[in-house]
Amino acid sequence: MTSRLATAAEPPRHRDPRELGDPPSRALPAPSQPRRPLGATPGMECLPSRGRRRPGYRSPGSTEYSKFLLRAHGCRHPVAHPGGCQPGHPGAGTPLHTRRDNGRGRWDRHHHRGGAVTEDPRARRVRPPEPPREKLLLSPLPRSPVLRACSVPVPSHLSPVQAWVESLRHHDDERRGLTDLHPDVFAVRPRLDILHAVAMWQKNFKRISYAKVKTRAEVRGGGRKPWRQKGSGRARHGSIRSPLWRGGGIAHGPRGPTSYYYMLPMKVRVLGLKVALTVKLMQDDLHVVDSLEIPTADPQYLLDLARYRRWGRSVLIVDVNEMPENIGTAAAGLKTINLIPVLGLNVHSMLKHETLVLTLDTVTFLEKKLLWHDTRYSALYPFSMPYSDFP
Amino acid sequence: MIVFKERRRGRGRYGGRKCGRGHKGERQRGNRPRLGFEGGQTPFYLAIPKYGFNEGHSRRRQYQPLSLQRLQYLIDLGRVDPTQPIDLTQLTNARGVTVQPLKRDYGVQLVEEGADIFSAKVNIEVQRASELAIATIEKNGGVVTTSFYDPRSLEILCKPVVFFLRGQPIPKRMLPPEDLVRYYTDARNRGYLADPSKVAEARLELAKKYGYVLPDITKDELFKMLSTRKDPRQIFFGLAPGWIVNMADKKILKPTDERLLKYYSS
Fold first, then answer.
1. Alpha-carbon dihedral angle through residues B234, B239, B243, B245, given to the nearest 10 degrees
2. What ipTM did this prediction achieve?
3. Cβ–Cβ under 8 Å, residues A368 and A299
4. Alpha-carbon distance B216 to A158, whole Å?
5. Which terms in the GO cellular component ontology are assigned (chain B) (predicted)?
6. What is the DSSP letter of B68?
């Protein structure tokens, strides 16, 4: 129990530490500035802006001197000064202050002769731990932040990776809890060669090229020798449909429907899925959702949600067969947000869409199905027939 | 000092100059005679008289070897359960052996490799077994039986699920052909058609020959399991010939007609 709380207190490793300085809490502090509308998109003015101006956001290089904006022409004057910013204005070219390192590459401490050590007051210090503040809870928190452990036992030399569990019910409902993800599915080696192989296989194995051209035997005519062999003065020919002739047959053209069918080994395809899931998770493009319930069947809600949460231009939502009606109707009309069952999950779709959204049931299903291949016997008869240990 | 000289090249595609073909003659011109020709002298393959060493080799019975070491390995890894009778079905399910009935395989034979390290008490049924292998298993308190499966029964035994999905009744196992009857009625080979009392005598004789004390299996806690044997006409342990197994509904259908019952019990 102690270890789980200890791991839950620090954010998951792959997340950006800048954005998740606080432990999971439901209430955000009240905004100090009025919210600005997002860009020129109609219908988005009602939403609060998210971005660098968000309260609580601190960019990594921010110090007290950030208000001294660096302008294009190199002037570091404060915001308002007489004369405006022109190349000839007083003080242009002269820096207000030069920051120097102490000669050993450190910017915060300066050792002077005589043993004095001065600390740079502008150096960024580690923030002291904040005292626990009263949290405004919207609903009672679960006992531990980990909502779901791995269904398949994790080997002792590996530890599960974690991801935030979100909800689609409200645009702000992120970080409901954590879920454990099996490392042999979501933290495998990033084998890009396997991703390429599986993606190319998906593209090509269905291909049948129907191109066919006629050879000199199939082109109409050309059985007779056009003129005698010798004496006519022209080049010798045997038929008017030889490949040399205009209108003749093609010597080495495409012949008949060609199939490009081939199968990669089952375990390679399974590994491709695992690598794709790992890559999505490690690049912050995987989101786990507790269920796919949304308040309205309006497609715009999904678009706004994806925009607000910065999910990217395309979203692939995966569920295990039972999809609520709202999200079904909402996604039906959309081109960039797609809803598929788990059995339709494939590497090409995962790479094509920028974000992948899985439900907790989907994660359980995937772990069970993908991990079975690691410890199964070879096939005695096709897997379409019943096996006693088939998942 | 070793000096590596660069190999002289004739340049061009595939080596250049003579292209590795030699100088003039049949070699360079590609007119060499057929393989085995000895310039007119009666070639070796014609001078030697024929003898039927390999005659009918594709029609001979083959038995996939199963070493005692492999059996011990499977038991140690938990792929084969020694507390149940070990059958060819169990071995195939554990992927311990691969039997191909269509390639004239008639089953599995026990081989002595690993006899010194074998230490498992098993009730095993194979198609052939050498004397030392039988001795090793009986020394450890196990039971060996050799039995015959005709090719159709063997295919059903190796892949039971595929057979059950066909929906056909389980056939009765055929008796061995003439040249194998002698083998399977001999107690020294622990044949399934041999007299049980003679089998007991043979066990004692083997113990005396190889010099070990024959453990008494009647006092064993697994005696009932060790003494289970199949009927000569039975293919599976719990199922009789004539029954149909319905996997989808998980039911077994048994024949009720008198003629069918008479046929399947003969």
1. -130
2. 0.85
3. no
4. 49
5. mitochondrial large ribosomal subunit
6. H
For residues B109 and B144, give the distance between their C-alpha atoms in angstroms, rounded to a whole number.
11
Q: What is the DSSP string of B95-153?
A: TS----GGGTEEEEEEE-TTTTT-----EEEESEE-HHHHHHHHHTT-EEEE----HHH
Q: Which of A377, A378, A385 faces B162 most closely, judged by CB atoms?
A: A385
Residue A129 DSSP symbol: P
Q: Note the pLDDT tens digit of each residue in A207-222.
A: 999 999 999 999 999 9
Q: How far apart are CA A240 and CA A252, in angstroms?
A: 18
- The confidence score (pLDDT) of residue A109 equals 76
Residue B144 has phi, psi (to 5 degrees) of -115, 140
Taking contacts as CB-CB distances below 8 angstroms, the residues of chain A near B92 are: 380
Cα A211 to Cα A208, A241, A259: the distances in Å are: 9, 20, 11
Give which of B127, B122, B136, B64 is closest to B96, Cα–Cα. Answer: B64
Q: What is the pLDDT of residues A137-173, one digit of tens each?
A: 566 666 788 999 999 999 999 999 999 999 999 988 8
Cα–Cα separations (whole angstroms), residue B252 to B100, B244, B247: 28, 6, 8
The Cα A318–Cα A322 span in angstroms is 10
Nearest 5°: the CA angle B229, B231, B232 is 115
CA distance A361 to A367: 10
Please check whether residue A314 is in contact with residue A352, taking contact to mean a CB–CB distance below 8 angstroms. yes
Nearest to A162 by CA among A363, A390, A366: A363
Q: Average pLDDT of A360-374?
A: 96
Contact A68, A96 (CB under 8 A): yes
What is the DSSP pairing of strand B62-67 with strand B105-111? parallel
Residue entry with tokens 């594709």:
B58
Direct distance between the N- and C-terminal alpha carbons of chain A, in angstroms, rounded to an integer: 31
- At A168, list the tokens: 């689609």
The pLDDT tens digits for B154-184 are: 999 999 999 999 999 999 999 999 999 999 9
For CA atoms B109, B111, B114, B118, the dihedral sign is positive
CB of A292 within 8 A of CB of A211?
A: no
Which tokens in the block code for residue B92? 């195939």
The packing angle between helices A325-332 and A299-308, to 10°, is: 90
| Chain A residue numbers touching B93 (CB-CB < 8 A) | 377, 380
Percent of chain B with pLDDT over 90: 90
Contact of A378 with chain B, judged by CB distance below 8 Å, is answered with yes
Concatenated DSSP letters of A306-366:
HHHTT--S-EEEEESS---HHHHHHHHT-SSEEEEEGGG--HHHHHHSSEEEEEHHHHHHH
pTM over 0.90: no
Residue B263 scores a pLDDT above 90: yes
Q: A90: burial class by Cβ within 10 Å (0-12, 13-18, 19+)?
A: exposed
Tokens of A294: 């949304």
User: Does residue A386 sit at the B interface (CB-CB below 8 Å)?
Assistant: yes
User: Is residue B82 classed as helix, strand or coil in its secondary structure?
Assistant: coil
Total beta-carbon pairs less than 8 A apart between chain A and chain B: 18
CB contact under 8 A, A387 and B95: no
| Nearest CB neighbour to B162, from listed A377, A378, A381 | A381
Higher pLDDT, A220 or A41: A220
Handedness of CA B92, B95, B99, B102 (dihedral sign): positive
Cα(A108)–Cα(A39) distance, rounded to whole angstroms? Answer: 40
List CB contacts (< 8 A) between B247 and chain A: 386
